[in-house]
Amino acid sequence: xxxxxxxxxxxxxxxxxxxxxxxxxxxxxxxxxxxxxxxxxxxxxxxxxxxxxxxxxxxxxxxxxxxxxxxxxxxxxxxxxxxxxxxxxxxxxxxxxxxxxxxxxxxxxxxxxxxxxxxxxxxxxxxxxxxxxxxxxxxxxxxxxxxxxxxxxxxxxxxxxxxxxxxxxxxxxxxxxxxxxxxxxxxxxxxxxxxxxxxxxxxxxxxxxxxxxxxxxxxxxxxxxxxxxxxxxxxxxxxxxxxxxxxxxxxxxxxxxxxxxxxxxxxxxxxxxxxxxxxxxxxxxxxxxxxxxxxxxxxxxxxxxxxxxxxxxxxxxxxxxxxxxxxxxxxxxxxxxxxxxxxxxxxxxxxxxxxxxxxxxxxxxxxxxxxxxxxxxxxxxxxxxxxxxxxxxxxxxxxxxxx
Length: 403
Known about the structure:
By secondary structure, the chain is α/β, with parallel strands linked by helices. The protein contains 13 helices and 15 strands. The chain has a five-stranded mixed β-sheet with strand order 5-4-3-6-10. A five-stranded mixed β-sheet has the order 13-12-11-14-15, sandwiched between helices. Residues 1-9 have low confidence and may be disordered.
């Protein structure tokens, strides 16, 4: 490799690293960028100037200047690019179109039959108007969050809950829509949202736990989502609790999900003599002070808290983030979860790992799906699915400066 080639490659790495830092932690000062990346101030100045010329970062005023002098920070130019994000369930899709800084520009929701004869054609027809309506702003791609396993290399989807098995979803939709399509487990997409735009932004190592129809988890370590060797990392709901326990839809018995999902809580309440039609009625009973309803939540929370503590002991996250529909009853779940979590934690970490609750909002899951695409310019990882987005990015004016 010649010194000229080596120097060009180093400049490319520096540009991606600076853009990644501004995208994930901006607004941020040049001094902070230099300190975090170990670059010289002149290098940061040169790189940031190139990125501003490319139209992807901009100067903003520091709201809290130090030393009595106005400060100058760098932030992403939101209008530099957009992406579409979609959360897919068995009977509905919820989607958004967002720009590079996570500002939601449009929202949509529509009925969807996941087990129709050709659901992908139907999905492409639902999405096509929003793809075509992107206007002059570069559309980086479409992100989809689905409730199942997704092979990060091939994009093949295994989602038994919605009847999809070994489905080549991204390849098929990419051909139909003529844009890159990235797919991931829906809990991973939520973690992507939290890391890029939400309450996980201060952390590079955290565990996201979701509660509701199912129970899931996602792991962010070193700033990257960890999907595992088969795309199944974070399948918290299928940790074995009791081999003689209730049957699970996965074919086993006694999975955690059979004790703490919405349906499991309702079944437990009915077995205890409570007449509740569903999760909302159970929650209302607990809110009204019913001791039986509160006990159901407390016991489920304790079971979940103990298992989450075990995961935290293995993964050593900076924080545990809790989200999903189940957080509507968090006041009651927390009565069992928090004591069990603290008691089960490895003692040196017991007070170091915070538990943060993010109220449920389907739009956040959809924005997380968009974040799969939007984070591509902000990451140094070589995720195979992201290659299509990088190739599309390369075709945009000035793109040689941001990749």
